[in-house]
Amino acid sequence: MLSTTARTTLGRSKERGSTDRNDLYDVLDTGLICHLGVVVNGHPMVVPTGYGRIGDTLYLHGSTGATSLRGGGESEVCVTVTHLDGIVLARSIFHHSVNYRSAIIYGRARPVTDPEERLAGLRAVSEQLAPGQWDYVRPPSRKELAATAVVALSLEEASVKIRRGAPKDEEEDYGLPVWAGVLPLVTSWGAPEPDPLLPEGIDPPVHILRRE
Amino acid sequence: MLSTTARTTLGRSKERGSTDRNDLYDVLDTGLICHLGVVVNGHPMVVPTGYGRIGDTLYLHGSTGATSLRGGGESEVCVTVTHLDGIVLARSIFHHSVNYRSAIIYGRARPVTDPEERLAGLRAVSEQLAPGQWDYVRPPSRKELAATAVVALSLEEASVKIRRGAPKDEEEDYGLPVWAGVLPLVTSWGAPEPDPLLPEGIDPPVHILRRE
Questions:
Q1: ipTM score here?
Q2: Distance (Å, rounded) from C-alpha A28 to C-alpha A23?
Q3: Distance between alpha carbon A30 and the CA centroid of its chain, in Å?
Q4: A76: nearest CA in chain B?
Q5: Which of B89, B173, B189 has its CB closest to that of A138?
Q6: Which residues are CB-neighbours of A91 under 8 A, at least 6 positions away?
Q7: Does domain A14-171+180-209 have CATH number 2.60.120.200?
Q8: What residue spans define the domains of chain A?
Q9: How far is A55 from chain B (nearest CA, A)?
Q10: Chain B partners within 8 Å of A200 (Cβ)
């Protein structure tokens, strides 16, 4: 079950809320980037960044110089992952909507200092964006590791919203001579584009070619 | 030219920054949703939502009951729009990256009360997600308009970051027998899915069928 704190109890569109922890894992595990929200000098700041999940912990990484991770000790963050699945075209402007799956996680970002957890966290972030690459390419050097900040965020306080399916129109609008339905948004991988500096004879490995 | 306040002057990856206002318009005009950051009780909150642009003003809408827009008068917000274009697969884990185009806008959200500007703002938000629909379906009723909050955000304080092209690896890694390049992420529209309640004989109009 997902938590039901004041922040994660949905005020509106309750029917779109999910309290199934597997829905949370699913939204996170099928995503590529998140939007990380922090408060800097009292103002909100939202930056896109990578993430990875191990069990009920989310890991984020960044340059040690990045403002968004420079909270100094623990800092309150909000991490949002959104999949946009389609545009819901209703019979009235008011009922236009989108089909989506989104997760919002609130909590304190904990700087990860333990070397083993740091490496595991970085691996999770890397494999989320580029599965199979951690064991395929050159691993991080000591210097590269030192330049990378890793923070952890518990998935304790999270909410999931999902909207699927056809528009919901006003009763009296169903008779209008207007097409209604969903225009699906499809995301797919293109053909791998080799680095112009790649020597001839090196083909992309299966984990890149066959990525789902 | 884009502004160069402390918040929008890039600290890192300066070579990815753009100061061309047309890049800002381009990132915004080709996006579908943004991530809106606000501060609620001192904590960051990031929610996905629609938006629309008219000149140098961004419009957002929401239910009048939504926490994210309930700032009460003007409130500081951050709006981020991100396009993820591909995964940059380098010869080392450290230089893995993503190709992307993102815009971050900071400012005070101004509640829009003037009826004409409200309607124009709502039209912009609607046309961004579902172009052509405003003139095709039933327009908003007075009651529906009253239930919708519209806020405006100036594009004065904005930054744009763009990364394109091949990985940048360490000199000594170029000799590794490792494939490197970009795995492009492609977003496209699927075939329109009619509402099961749609009467027979109503076909999708051209602006839906031929959407780019």
A1: 0.93
A2: 9
A3: 8
A4: B43
A5: B173
A6: A167, A169, A170, A173, A174, A176, A178, A180, B137, B138
A7: no
A8: 14-171+180-209
A9: 22
A10: none
